[in-house]
């Protein structure tokens, strides 16, 4: 074990970047007095939603079904057997990469029958270069801070003992949600498309921190 003096520091970095993806959650519902009819209606509306999303091609990176349920609605909460209706719900998760179509997609989804749209949730991809950039900047900050301490003591850095990553965290400034209420029931007659809503991407703030220990030459403390 070396007896050389050691300086321990913490390096931090904050990097701002534009989001790379936007996530939407869509809940499509049906409600009928007959269980089979509720399921058939749900299947129809789910397919209509998927067809709409598919029409945007590569602008949509991923579509996933998060869950499906068919549940009876009772006339009386404490009495079994009295079913007044059956409610079906499908949860669809959508990842959009082309923000130019996002506003139009949100309004068209929200205009569908018994559809609830939640989002967008702006984000960076998990493998985004922004995270690596923040980590590198934090490491550079640790070296510069240690060098500054060493110079103040009349020393210089001679080696690295340890560098540990405190982890990377993303701060978006709080949740940002746009909710489109349940779409109205419409007749089969022609209907105008809703006006696209303007959506401004939320800047992503990535924070990184590292702890480092450096060996230094003996300090000049008599100066």
Number of discrete domains: 2
The CATH class assignment of the largest domain is Alpha Beta
- The CATH topology of the largest domain turns out to be Alpha-Beta Plaits
Per the principal axes of the C-alpha atoms, what is the gross shape? elongated
Give me the strand/helix succession: EEHEEHEHEEE
- Overall mean pLDDT: 86
Kindly name the structural category: alpha+beta
Strand arrangement across the biggest beta sheet: 3-4-2-5-7
Protein name: DUF541 domain-containing protein
Pfam families: SIMPL
InterPro entries: 26kDa_periplasmic_antigen, SIMPL/DUF541
Organism: Actinomadura spongiicola
3D structure, described in words:
This protein has 223 residues and is of the alpha+beta class. It folds into two domains: 6-18 and 127-178 and 201-217, Translation Initiation Factor IF3, CATH 3.30.110.170; 21-123, Protein of unknown function (DUF541), domain 2 (Alpha-Beta Plaits, 2-Layer Sandwich), CATH 3.30.70.2970. The chain is 24% helix and 42% strand. The protein contains three helices and eight strands, in the order ββαββαβαβββ. The chain has helices spanning 35-54, 102-110, 129-152; strands at 6-17, 21-32, 60-74, 83-96, 115-123, 157-171, 178-180, 204-216. A five-stranded antiparallel sheet has the order 3-4-2-5-7. Strands 1-8-6 form a three-stranded antiparallel sheet. Strand 3 (60-74) and strand 4 (83-96) form a beta hairpin. The longest helix is centred in the middle third of the chain and has 24 residues, at 129-152. The relative contact order is 0.27. The model is unreliable at 172-190 (pLDDT under 50). It holds the Pfam family SIMPL. InterPro entries: 26kDa_periplasmic_antigen, SIMPL/DUF541. It comes from Actinomadura spongiicola.
